[in-house]
Amino acid sequence: MLTLEEQQHRNALPQGFWLNEYQIESVLGKPGGFGITYLATDTHLRQSVAIKEYLPTDFAIREGISTVYVRSSSYDESFQWGLKCFIEESRVLAKFNHPYIVRVLRFFEANGTAYMVMEYQKGRSLTDYLKQQRILVEDQLLAIVHPLLDGLREIHKAGFLHRDIKPNNIYIREDNTPVLLDFGSARYAVGQKTRSVTSIVTPGYAPLEQYDNNINDQGPWTDLYALGAVMYCAISGEAPPAATRRVMKDPMVPAVKVGKGKYNKNLLQAIDWALRLSEEDRPQTVEQWQDKMLVPTLPTSSSTERLYQSRCSFVNVASMVVILLLGAACAVLFYKNQTHNVEITTERSARQIAEQQLEIERKLRQKAEQDYFQVKASIEEVQRFEPQAVAKIDHSNEADKYYDIVNVEVDDFLNVREFPGHLNKPMGSIPQTEKCIKYLGNLRFVKGQVWVKVQYKEAHGWVNSYYLMGSERCDEEKKN
To answer: Are 42 and 49 a contacting pair, CB within 8 Å?
Structure first.
């Protein structure tokens, strides 16, 4: 008796087999219960591609070298329904041209089944990546999650869901950028109709509503649960318990406890938010969840810590900066007025203790002064863009603001980034001589720097405030 994996490999097309202009090289990964993915060569373009074959082994089998047959006539309706869903999924995915979503080049029918041709991605799955890293630090995690969220936003905007987000379906390319693979919508649709496809859901990553027949309960929150589970795995080293195990007595240790002291508290709270069992209690959109992750965490005592679940407006940010400034100032005064009251037994031990205490105070005072000046510089930079924000004055009805480009080398240009931060994808570039760049009224703090959102021609994105200078001339011209 063959094992399931042996049977699936036995069903695979042989090396060297021709599918139209594609020549099969090998099987990629382990074949699943819904299909087999191959590495192949496009002999016309002379480049590698990945080809996914629809072959649900629960009710279909390959006879001979190529042709796929239904195991019995009783499975014919289910097979044809799945084939239709597979082709429709291919058609939808072919419309996306996004750097973090696998690119579908074409699809076709042959050998009694259908094939989806995709760009081949060099790298390794997040599963293999985590086997080596075990857990990810915050910067590594966000470098993977934010691009995937950008891709998910486009998918959801098109009215489509992934339905099978898990580490094995996230690929880390050789340049360390992620890409989302192997959508599960077609497989899930077949499973809902027949309940015969193996592994319709992936325990730990599938929310509770995916165990039910009612597909209307699913939405963006379904994918966000799965991505939240991926993040939980990345900070804890293991997936959360299956959603069905969490219903009566939840054994899952919250992310805020797992990652306490290692990750931004708002990031951990966002993970726990996405992993709520009830879909109504989860973030409903990518934007809502992402805003939660980006809210800065204030240094508060445990007795006054609270969960922020509303969007962080600029006034909130400015208010937090003021609190930091006052806190840093108080810290400087405190450490400047500290005195020593150390009981000593000998003159020598007293001197050593006093010197150690002085060194500790010196370092603490130095750190407090650094914090003070850094926060002071940040608030001054914020006031360049929103002078009245600290006073919490509503300036929503003010006229548009414009800035000129400064501090950019001659013949160079300023990149407009997709997200705040120098390493994020450029959305466009602004020449060094450009004037009157429109400020869109949004700021973010990244590693002590202020990033602002601007519009230049068709590009909307983020630039470092260091390269902008207010222009009264531009403001007046735009008003007139």
So the answer is: yes
pLDDT (tens digit per residue) in 112-154 = 999 999 999 888 989 999 998 889 999 999 999 999 999 999 9
Which residue has 């990652």 as its token pair?
Answer: 259
The candidate with the shortest Cα–Cα distance to 106, out of 82, 90, 92, is 90
Q: Distance from CA of residue 354 to its chain's centroid?
A: 50
Task: Supply the pTM of this predicted model.
Answer: 0.58
Q: Which residue ranges in the chain fall short of pLDDT 70?
A: 1-9, 30-33, 184-200, 213-216, 295-350, 352-353, 363-399, 447-448, 475, 478-480
Q: Which two tokens stand for residue 171?
A: 């690929």
Determine the pLDDT at residue 250: 92
Q: What's the gap between Cα 276 and its chain centre?
A: 18
What pLDDT is recorded for position 60? 87
Per-residue pLDDT at 288: 92
Residue 302: its pLDDT value, please? Answer: 40
307-143-315-472 Cα dihedral, nearest 10 degrees: 180
Helix/strand/coil (H/E/C) assignment for every residue in the chain = CCCHHHHHHHCCCCCCCEECCEEEEEECCCCCCCEEEEEEEECCCCEEEEEEEECCCCCEEECCCCCEEECCHHHHHHHHHHHHHHHHHHHHHCCCCCCCECCEEEEEEECCEEEEEEECCCEEEHHHHHHHHCCCCHHHHHHHHHHHHHHHHHHHHCCCCCCCCCHHHEEEECCCCEEECCCCHHHHHHHHHHCCCCCCCCCCCCCHHHHCCCHHHCCHHHHHHHHHHHHHHHHHCCCCCCHHHHCCCCCCCCHHHHCCCCCCHHHHHHHHHHCCCCHHHCCCCHHHHHHHHHCCCCCCCHHHCCCCCCCCCHHHHHHHHHHHHHHHHHHHHHHHCCCCCCCCCCHHHHHHHHHHHHHHHHHHHHHHHHHHHHHHHHHHHHHHHCCCCCCCCCCCCCCCEEEEECCCCCCCEEEEECCCCCCCCEEEEEECCCCCEEEEEEEEEECCEEEEEEEECCEEEEEEHHHEEECHHHHHHHHC
- Structure-block tokens of residue 116: 């989806």
**Count of Cβ atoms closer than 10 Å to residue 460 Cβ:** 15
Helix axes 220-236, 286-294, angle to 10 degrees: 30
Q: Do 201 and 243 form a contact (C-beta atoms < 8 A)?
A: no
**Residues whose CB is less than 8 angstroms from the CB of residue 442 and which lie 6 or more positions away in sequence, other chains included:** 314, 452, 453
Please give the pLDDT value at position 119: 92
Q: What does each C-alpha distance from 203 to 104, 238, 420, 480 come to in angstroms?
A: 27, 12, 35, 61
Residue 222 has what pLDDT? 93
